[in-house]
Amino acid sequence: MLKLAVFDFDSTLMDGETIDFFAKELGIGDEVARITEEAMSGRLDFFESLQQRVKLLEGLDFSVVEKISHNLPYMPGAQETIAELKNRGIKVVCFSGGFRTATSYAKDILGYDADFSNVLHHKDGKLTGLVGGDMMFNFSKGDMLIRLQNVLGVSEAETLVCGDGANDLSMFAHAGTRVAFCAREILQKEANIIIKEKDLSLILKEI
């Protein structure tokens, strides 16, 4: 029986990549999206790609970051899926290689119990191009999942994970139920549930 469900945020709970929305404001959407795609497909180290992309955002007003973060398009079925999982007594957590401005704001809207993500450093109202946080590396999600399982007393068999990109691989290694949601091929290979439509509620039919 499942006791813990962990969801990625960008392109899983949210329809798109938060950093790509920021980049469009600076007119560098294509450049940042290209690096994002390389990282999500596993062709680029996640930590290096995150540093590269955030550096390109230097100078963006933090007020713009907050506005965009609070107006993101959530994935169809996200709210109802989380509500149903919680109904079943399952703890629901968000792990994101993205940013707390988005994940912490979405927590009360989508209804998950906790979020672990990264923080964009800002000074004098503008992004400095620096980033820090819980989810900086390829191994971060798996590392955090093990710690969470230990704290909650939850086994791999009792854990569901859901994501779309290469930086979700590390958490796939520690879960019995592995959902690849509209995912890159590298992740689909490690999944035991594959969803190809943008509707998170389809997961409920599989578990």
Explain this structure.
The chain has 207 residues and is of the alpha/beta class. Helices cover 39% and strands 22% of the residues. Helix 1 packs antiparallel against helix 2 (29-40), helix 1 (18-25) packs across helix 4 and helix 4 (62-69) packs parallel to helix 6. The termini are close together.
Secondary structure elements and their pairing?
Blueprint: E1 4-8, H1 18-25, H2 29-40, H3 46-56, H4 62-69, H5 78-87, E2 91-99, H6 100-110, E3 114-123, E4 126-133, H7 140-152, E5 159-163, H8 169-172, E6 177-181, H9 185-188, E7 193-195
Parallel strand pairs: 1-2, 1-5, 2-3, 5-6, 6-7
Antiparallel strand pairs: 3-4
Order of helices and strands: EHHHHHEHEEHEHEHE
Biggest sheet: strand arrangement: 4-3-2-1-5-6-7
Give the fraction of residues assigned to helices.
25-40%
CATH class: Alpha Beta
CATH topology: Rossmann fold
Structural class: alpha/beta
CATH architecture: 3-Layer(aba) Sandwich
Mean pLDDT: 95
Tell me, what's the shape? globular
Percent of residues in β-strands: 15-25%
CATH superfamily: HAD superfamily/HAD-like
The number of helices is 9
Strand tally: 7
Q: First CA to last CA: what distance?
A: 9 Å
Largest sheet: 7 strands, mixed
Radius of gyration: 16 Å
For the record, the count of structural domains works out to: 1
Which consecutive residue ranges, at least 5 long each, have pLDDT under 50?
none
